[in-house]
Amino acid sequence: MLITTSQTIGPFSHEAWDWAVQASAAATLETSARTITVQGAVYDGDGVAVSDAMIEAWLPNGASAEAAQALPGFRRVPSDEQGRFSLRISLPLTGHGEPACYITVFARGLVKHQFSAVFLDDDSALAQSAILNQVPAARRATLIARRQDDASYHWDIRMQGADETVFFDYV
C-alpha cells in the first residue's frame, strides 16, 4: 500500500498557517475591480461549527484586476471559534454565470481537502452556468451565496448531512 500525504494526522492548519493568515490580514487589497464580501460559517455533519477550518479561495477572473497583489486572485482565511469566515473578493465581471470564486476547504476530520465553488444569487446568467447545470437542481442552492441587506453575501459550508455543500472532484 502506498502512503500519501493526505494520510497524515493533520492538518493543524491554524498553527501551521498562522504566518500566512497574519500576513494576509495585514495586507490591503489593491484591485481595479468592484469588491464584495462573502461571509458564512463552516459546519460539520452534526451542525456544529468547525472552528479550525482553513478556507482558500481562487478568483481566476479577479487575478488580472489584482496585479499589484503578492498572490493575485488568491485568499486564505481561517474559521473562527464559531466557524465563521469572511472573504473579500474582486469581481471584474458580472452576469457571466461563472463562480465568484473557487473554494478549497481544509479542516479537522478531512483526510483530503474538499473543492467547491461560490456563485452569487444576483448573477443574471446563473441559469446558463455550465458548472451549475452539472449539479442536480435540488443541490444547486448549496453553491449560491445570498445577497444581504449590507451588500455582502452569505454562504455557509456544510461538510455533511442533508444540506451538504456540493463538493467537486477534479481529475
Features:
171 residues; single chain; Protocatechuate 3,4-Dioxygenase, subunit A; mainly beta; globular
Structural summary, described in words:
The protein is mainly β. The protein has one domain: Protocatechuate 3,4-Dioxygenase, subunit A, CATH 2.60.130.10. The protein is 8% helix and 29% strand. Strands 1, 2, 3, 4, 5, 6, 7, 8 and 9 form a 9-stranded mixed sheet that branches. A hairpin with a 7-residue loop joins strand 5 and strand 6 (114-120). The longest helix has 9 residues, at 18-26. It is globular and about 40 Å long. The two termini are 21 Å apart. The model has no long low-confidence stretch (mean pLDDT 85).
How would the blueprint of this fold be written?
Elements: H1 13-16, H2 18-26, E1 34-43, E2 54-58, E3 74-78, E4 84-91, E5 101-106, E6 114-120, E7 144-147, E8 153-154, E9 157-158
Parallel strand pairs: 1-8, 1-9, 6-7
Antiparallel strand pairs: 1-4, 2-3, 2-5, 5-6, 7-8
- The H-and-E topology, N to C, reads as HHEEEEEEEEE
Our measurement of the CA-to-CA distance between the termini, rounded to an integer number of angstroms, reads 21 Å
CATH superfamily: Aromatic compound dioxygenase
Class derived from helix and strand content: mainly beta
Please tell me the CATH architecture by its name. Answer: Sandwich
Tell how many strands the DSSP assignment holds: 9
Shape: globular
**What is the CATH class designation?**
Mainly Beta
Assess the beta-strand content as a share of residues: 25-35%
Radius of gyration: 16 Å
Mean pLDDT: 85
Helix content: under 10%
In summary, what is this structure?
The chain is mostly beta strands. Helix content is 8%, strand content 29%.
